[in-house]
Amino acid sequence: MCTPVYLSTIGRPKSLARDRKAGRRRWAVVGGNVFALGAVSLVTDISSEMVTAILPLYLVIGLQFSPAAYGLVDGLYTGATVVLRLAGGYLADRIRRRKAVAGFGYALSAVAKLGLLAAGGSVTAIGLAITADRAGKGLRTAPRDALITLSAPPGQLGRAFGVHRTMDSVGAFIGPLVALAVLALAGQGYDAVFVTSSCIAVFGVVILALFVRDHRGPAHTGVPSPANAPSETAGPSKAARETVSVRQAAGLLRDSRVRRLLLAACLLGFVTVGDGFVYLLLQRREEVSLGWFPLLAVGTSLAYLLLAAPLGALADRVGRLPVTLGGYAALVAVYLALVAPVGGPVLVVVVLCLYGLFYAATDGILMALAAPLLPERLRTTGLALVQTGQALAYLGSSVLFGVAWQSWGITAACWLAVLAGVTAIIVTAALLRGVSRTEIEMEAAS
Q: pTM (2 decimals)?
């Protein structure tokens, strides 16, 4: 009876050592290019979150925007210029210069920050500056995510996106703190925040130019292409000569899995009302002082930072669909908490933690779910298609939530968001159940 115990005791340290080495190899295989892209996103998010942290106050408190007007601007901030997402994705695939397209997008956003400085109180000018900023984001997001999928093995995409989103969230954590410091030094002047934000964004473009490697040839990962997609088995030289056409890009929609993925992305985007609304509701309910308002975004970013990489690894083990749906369940819990009868500091902490959990479980993991279903030569276009669906739905969601808040009050608007969220989770689970199984089979084949 003692011998098995003794043998198991001897064997455990070796097993643990093997597990640790295997774990290190899994994280190392993510690759240096993913970390370089993460560094670009870290710096860029410091710049972006400086503006995002103060924008609700600047518009609603400073410029006296109504909830409906703010909903329109918030929708523009995230959902506008959706056509440019598709254009950027298609262009990157066609010219096979994903880094160049992403770099142009990052540079455009850096310049647009100065547009907010010149806009003054003009709603039209503010809208144009925000549209230019989001145009840059629309152009860069799909090429950047495609570079991530092409810089890591298919079975490690959850980890790769988890690492990238963790570094991204470090920037989101630091950005509001930098905004607070700049406001304090500048005597609460918003202009100083916009100028500082633009300078930091330029630094992100420099990192991209110097350290990120482009991926212009076929990876031959062994992942089979979807039905009706162009073949990639002809060899590197032929693939390199082929030019992606509009007809080939449109052919992605002939694949039923891609159509279901796009519909699910639209549903999930429609139930996301935007950070500004969540923080404004918390600020009004708990009477958070205006000086501390940017720290609400810091709390969300901290939870995101701590959870993004572990949830990415979990998605690789248990499936990306369950983790994504769990994230949207956390978002529904946020809406419920905002109308709950309890309040105080505990409510603020719970809402921010759940909100960070939502982002960690969804941002990037849906892209990791989509990537194995798309051929490499159309990878950027396919990811842009999914992101465009989400952005269009988000634009409608922000406008409708703002109108519901102004017309029926905060409580009714939140309950409508809860109902929409639960419905979207159920429908998405049904739509993507088969897609998730196909994704696992593809990665096993590779």
A: 0.67
